[in-house]
Amino acid sequence: MPPRTARPRRRATRDRTRGRAAGLTHFNAAGEAHMVDVGGKHVTTREAVAEGVIRMRPETLERILAGGHKKGDVLGVARLAGIMAAKRTAELVPLCHPIPLSAVEIELAPEKAAVRCRATVRTSGQTGVEMEALTAVEIALLTIYDMCKAVDRGMVLTDIRLLAKSGGRSGTWVREE
Questions:
Q1: Residue 159 designated active-site
Q2: Distance of alpha carbon 129 from its chain centroid, rounded?
Q3: Which CATH code, of 3.30.70.640, 3.40.50.700, 3.30.70.1230, 3.40.50.300, is assigned to 44-170?
Q4: 101 labelled binding-site residue
Q5: Is 131 annotated as belonging to a binding site?
Q6: Catalytic residue among 37, 146, 152, 159
Q7: Separation CA 64–CA 81 (nearest Å)
Q8: pLDDT at position 34, please?
């Protein structure tokens, strides 16, 4: 076996200036992107709630609610797309951990010329589910856009944000409006 060569040591102060000092956990001491090691974290029940809105012309919403869309039940398909997206977040966001989800709930609420999507995602694990909740919202809204773009290309996805998260060492966080 060849002898091990010693790696040059870096000064800790220099290492901390490349991302870690700024609280960016997805970078190592050398400033390289890496997946955070969650092996030492405790398994806890974790939940995240995210929300977003797709704004559209009133007649587009009327068509969605009438159910006579040629592609079928728009909100039902969007709900399924959001659930599927939450389950596949680790395939879409490069440094996310693949985690088993215990629940994904997608609520789609029609409003005046808009549909509001709220996703609630739960797991028992070593890392949170914020990214899964945000991904579920985004993909559910994109599905509505895809299914309705033939009649309204001017739709706008907006206000996609995390509303709350709980579990883990950092505990509970709730967005203050």
A1: no
A2: 7
A3: 3.30.70.640
A4: no
A5: yes
A6: 146
A7: 16
A8: 66
